[in-house]
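ESCALATION

Customer reports they have been waiting on this structure for their group meeting. Please prioritize. Original submission:
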Amino acid sequence: MTYDELLIEADNENLIVREKPLQSANGRIYGNRIAIRKGISNAEKTCVLAEEIGHYKTTVGNILDQSNTNNRKQEISARKWAVDKLLHIEDLFRAANACCGTLHEVAEFLDVTEEFLLEALKVFKRRYGHSYTSGEKTLVFNDCGFYVIT
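Update from on-call: job pushed to the front of the queue and completed.
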């Protein structure tokens, strides 16, 4: 899903999205207003907006204090929502088929940030375990990312 598609989805949810010169974060949500840091890359905007929409859909109240366990759980929930919105496990096979050999290349191919890709890999590993098989190919998750076995 692209940044423009996410903007349309946000609009359909009656969310107001504006790019602003934020000081301490790439994105913030307050009520139905989302601020995205002005000047960041398109991939960063996409990942940040997906997470902020995830907060809108899954979070209750102010969760800035991440020393609070409940707030951390809500943060994880919003990030998981964003991962599910932007990536599917099959996208990793597509990246491997496109000869992407590094996490940077995979992230660039999928139009997400490396940080977001690493978060997605954690989500997929928790969901599927250490490997995922599709057809005759198996994706294996490791500490450095993933690799594909045929």
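Sent to customer with the following note: The longest strand covers residues 137-142.
Escalation resolved.
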